[in-house]
Amino acid sequence: MDAQKTTDIIIIGGGVMGASTAYHLTTRGLKNIMLLEKEDFFGLGATGRCAGGVRYQFATEINIRLSIESLPMLERFHNEIGQEVDYRKCGYIFLLTHPDEVVQFKRNVDLQNQLGARTEWLSGDEIRNLLPMMHLDDVLAGSLNPRDGLVDPNSVVMGYINAAQRSGVKALTSTLVTGVIIKSGRVIGVNTGDQVIYAPVVVDATGPWSSLTGQMAGVDIPVTPLRRQWLTTTPLPELPPDFPFVIDFAQSLYFHREGPGLLTGMSNSDEKPGYSQNIDSDWELAHMEAAISRMPLLGHAGLASHLAGLYEVTPDAHPIFGKTPVEGYYIVTGFSGHGFMHGPIAGKLMTEIIIDGRSTTVDVSMLDLARFKENRLIHEYNVV
Ligand SMILES: Cc1cc2nc3c(=O)[nH]c(=O)nc-3n(C[C@H](O)[C@H](O)[C@H](O)COP(=O)(O)OP(=O)(O)OC[C@H]3O[C@@H](n4cnc5c(N)ncnc54)[C@H](O)[C@@H]3O)c2cc1C
């Protein structure tokens, strides 16, 4: 051991959850904070590999409420934090091809609108008129929220980290947490190879790796890493500048503009849990076949880039916030494929939980870790 340090709060993980939590703690006057990231740069985990989508369209009240708080924080980001995040309100259109989806989505849209999300219902013909470059004969109906869109993930992470550092947070890269030190049922610090850092509060914000981090603390965190991948194409001049984020719900197949080309992804429902972030070429072929049959102009596009990343999936596709059986050891994880958009509010809520003992901006007490043992799961239908 060549060093020992002491701080008030350690945050493990420099993705959107860790960065937002660090920043929001400083807004409440806490400065003696260390954020530890194992990679050489922040935001190289799920956050840096995400598709950047932000939406109000969810099926459960809690997810809609999280969006209603979080998306305006992204709109205000530049004013509040001084970092441009390129919020493009291109709208999300969900395409529905099965009668049971239509029934469920009608309910979702009603709920979204009761809560103030202002989502529109579209007939099959209205969707075909909006998207003439796509093959949509089988589309029965759909939903559109014009305020859904895209935001740049790296700008959000670095905006929060830079602001937190300006307030005194020590944010370290290349710092792998290898152990969590517990004494008499409470956390007292972490090991990082050659160092021990002592703190009475440790926040596990390690996303897809959070069950591994939890094991170091003896806490069972039911988060499964599941590979997801997408690709971008060479320029497609035929694509209108206002092309929306389109999701073929039944196939979990999505498209949105990325620069002069298109970004498209499709979730493999047979993907096995694991930490591999290599591209699955067989799946890429299956994905491209499905994408071209929806969007024939992709047939003459080239591949510009592709990558795979990990969703951090919980048994009920909802996140986990707050305390654990180890006193002082908190978690914010398990956003199951839509955590980037909820990162801003999640950091604020974690700050409320740590400082005030409970979250008030949105009450997320039902999203506690204990719900899995107590059988209080919540189901989300709109998982892509
Ligand atoms: C392909 C793909 C597309 C997606 N698309 C969207 C989308 O359109 N919209 C959306 O809202 N969400 C999307 N998501 C989900 C979103 O990316 C995640 O929910 C979110 O980024 C999770 O953030 P996080 O901070 O919890 O995790 P991460 O960003 O993974 O951060 C965790 C960090 O912890 C670090 N770490 C892990 N273990 C240790 C350790 N022992 N010591 C130190 N550091 C450690 C990791 O290196 C990592 O940087 C997508 C995800 C993927 C994979």
Description of the structure:
With 384 residues, the protein is of the alpha/beta class. The chain contains 11 helices and 20 strands. It has helices at 16-27, 46-49, 61-75, 77-81, 99-114, 124-130, 153-166, 210-217, 281-294, 339-356, 370-373, and strands at residues 3-6, 9-12, 33-36, 53-54, 92-96, 120-123, 141-145, 149-150, 170-172, 179-183, 186-191, 195-198, 201-204, 224-233, 245-248, 253-258, 261-266, 303-313, 320-323, 329-333. An 8-stranded mixed sheet has the order 6-7-5-15-16-17-14-18. β15 and β16 (253-258) form a beta hairpin. α1 (16-27) runs parallel beside α7 and α3 (61-75) packs across α10. The chain is globular, with a radius of gyration of 21 Å. Flavin-adenine dinucleotide (FAD) binds at residues 12-18, 36-39, 44-47, 49-53, 176-177, 205-209, 213, 228, 230, 309-312, 333, 335, 337-341. Residues 12-18, 36-39, 44-47, 49-53, 176-177, 205-209, 213, 228, 230, 309-312, 333, 335, 337-341 line the site of flavin-adenine dinucleotide.
The fraction of residues assigned to DSSP E strands is 25-35%
Q: Which structural class do you get from the secondary structure elements?
A: alpha/beta
Number of helices: 11
Average pLDDT confidence is 96
What ranges have pLDDT less than 50 throughout 5 or more consecutive residues?
Answer: none
- Heteromolecules bound: flavin-adenine dinucleotide
Largest sheet: 8 strands, mixed
Question: What gyration radius follows from the Cα positions, in whole Å?
Answer: 21 Å
Cα distance, first to last residue? Answer: 45 Å
Main-sheet strand order equals 6-7-5-15-16-17-14-18
Shape: globular
Kindly state the percentage of residues in helix: 25-40%
The number of strands is 20
